Each structure stands twice: as C-alpha cells, then as structure tokens.
Amino acid sequence: MPSLFDSFALRGVTLKNRLVVSPMCEYSSIDGFANDWHLVHLGSRAVGGAGLVICEAAAVSPEGRITPDDLGIWKDEHVDFLRRINTFIVAQGSVPGIQLAHAGRKASTYTSWKGSGAVPVFFGGWQVVGPGDAPFNYDYPQPMALDAAGIQKVIADFRAATVRALAAGFQIIEIHAAHGYLLHEFYSPLSNQRTDEYGGSFENRIRLTVEVVRAVGALLPNHLPLLVRISATDWTKGGWTIEDSVELAKVLKAEGADLIDTSTGGNVPHASIPSAPGYQVEFAERIRREAGVATGAVGLITTAAQAEEIVASGQADLVLLAREELRDPYFPLHAAHELGADVAWPVQYERAKPRQAPS
Ligand SMILES: Cc1cc2nc3c(=O)[nH]c(=O)nc-3n(C[C@H](O)[C@H](O)[C@H](O)COP(=O)(O)O)c2cc1C
C-alpha cells in the first residue's frame, strides 16, 4: 500500500513524497517577470517539504495572461529569474515544475484586489481570443474567434514556452487545460460551437489540447514527465463530463502524458459545484482506474489523514494542495510528524524538528 511519504517516480524524475504545491497565480509580475516574491513564495514551500512545487500558470503569450499582472514565459528574458528560483528549489530536495497556460476568453481581466471583470484596452487590456466570439460572462471581454493561423500560433507559443521552461531548469511541465481557459474552452461543448476540424465532435473539440500535448511532449527529453491539468466536469447539463474526461485521458496517455492533474469547473459562471472536503477526488480516482494513467487529486484537501487516505486507497498518486499550502507552507513537515514518517528537515531548522511521536 503506497503512503504519502513514499517517493514517486515519473519517468526519470523522483519526487521524495506525494505532496505537491498546486499552481497558484500570484498576480505579482510586471511584464511577465518573476521577482523576489516568487522566489520567497515558491522557495519557502520547497523548504516546507513538498515533493514537487508547481510554479503558477505562466502565460505562453502576452494575450494568454489572465491579468496584466500574470507571470509569463513568452520571452527569453523571463528565463533567468526562473532559473534562480529553480536552483533554490532543487537545493531543498524538491522538484520544480511549471504550468504553461493560455487564458483564452478569460484573459485581460482585473487582478481580484484591483477590480473585477474586463480590463479595457485603454487601461492596459487587450483583444482576447477563444474558440468563438461568446464572452465567458457579461462583464468579461468579447473574444475574437481563433482562425487556423491563430491556432497554429497558440501551439507554437506553447512550444517556445517549453524550450524556455527547460532552459530555466524546470523538471516537470504541466499544461493547463482546465478552469475554462483556452484548451478547456475548446474541448467543452458549452464554449465551442465551431464548425471546422476544431469543433463539433469529441475528437474535434479535444484536437487543440492533443496537439499542444503532442507539441510540448516532442520537446521533452525522455526522462522528463509531462502533466496535464483538466477540468473533469463542467458541473453543467450538456457540458463536459467525467466520461469525456476518461476518454480524453486515454488519448493524452497515448500521446505521452504521464499524469492527469484532475480539477473541475471554471468554464461557465453559474455552475452549481458541490464543494466539500475532497469533492474532486472521485474524478481522479475514476480517471486513474478507467484510463490506466497516474492522477493527481486536488481541491479542499487540508489534513494529513485525508491526504494519506487518498494515496493509500489508490484514489490518486499525488495530492495537490493550494490554499492549505498558503496557510501553512510547512504542511508536509507537519503532516510527516502527524503520520509518524521520519523525513529530513532543512539542516538550518533541525533544532526545531519534533522528536516525539504525536500522541
Ligand atoms: C491564489 C490561487 C491561485 C490559483 N492559481 C491557479 C493557477 O495558476 N493554475 C491552476 O491550475 N489553478 C490555480 N488555482 C487553483 C488551485 O491550484 C487549486 O486547484 C484550487 O485552489 C483547489 O485546491 P485547494 O482547495 O487546495 O485550494 C489557484 C488557487 C488559488 C487559491
């Protein structure tokens, strides 16, 4: 029976445990650059003992940013600071990963603490793109439908971003195909009404995701794994379903994806989502069982016992934490103590390591 503090190998990369820092946008960049905030934010979570730290959604093009403040990886100048962060993460015995993203029709919006809805062009916003011209919501920007050349540019942008991510020392690449951003917009029937080879049938709607996965995968050396985050359901009648996700996972596995990071929702504003502890785990479990591919579970996982149970019962191979890692960057060290696993603490913090087993 696997345990949370067992190592886990993905191709040639071995994670020291199954706890992952889920990608979290910090909206703290200027012109896409990482800075001291990202170094401290990601670095302290590596110090905290996570096996894998996935850097927030990094926009593969300026128009693919959710907000003007997003992290980016669309130019070579972005690489240097990211490399500095990764050197630190590796020195802590953790693995640095990055999520490559394009926000599609949900781009050009305000950072939550600055406003809401669309950022107009004259305030630094931009023309957004999507599968069609329908906006996500009434206060979101009106997208322009991508034409064939636009689609090829998206794929080329993911490709170029991958080359930069490798140059920056990331050892795991995750493609963001969830939460109502561009790739999800294409595979969901709720947002894709195209009549060309990228719309209509299931095969056509998943085509862009598959082409991006194939393009990125072709650039990765054999020992480096590729993850894909999907939304396993739209939580909406007539939308994308878990059955669709199982089929997509089978295709992505055949294309070389090593793990499906299983999230849900985000593609329509008024979906009714039954949020509760571990409410998305069942989807990770089903994809793992029915598509025969490794999965990550995410969403309202907040305790050591809950995370251990997910791994031990074979519901998922990895457990991703977002908000709990913000509350407690040392969650993995605390969880190890709680579960009685003897893990190494940073030598600088050794004197604070609890010696007693929890009662
Ligand atoms: C501040 C913040 C930023 C986030 N940014 C991203 C992101 O860049 N990419 C992504 O796929 N999900 C993002 N998410 C979603 C989380 O990765 C995670 O899936 C979600 O918060 C549920 O996990 P939790 O209950 O542990 O927070 C973000 C969540 C938070 C709280």
TrEMBL record:
GO terms for molecular function: FMN binding; NADP binding; NADPH dehydrogenase activity. The keyword Nucleus does not apply. Keywords: Flavoprotein, FMN, NADP, Oxidoreductase. Gene3D superfamilies: Aldolase class I. Residues 3-339 form the NADH:flavin oxidoreductase/NADH oxidase N-terminal domain. Its cofactor is FMN. The keyword Flavoprotein applies. This is Oxidoreductase.
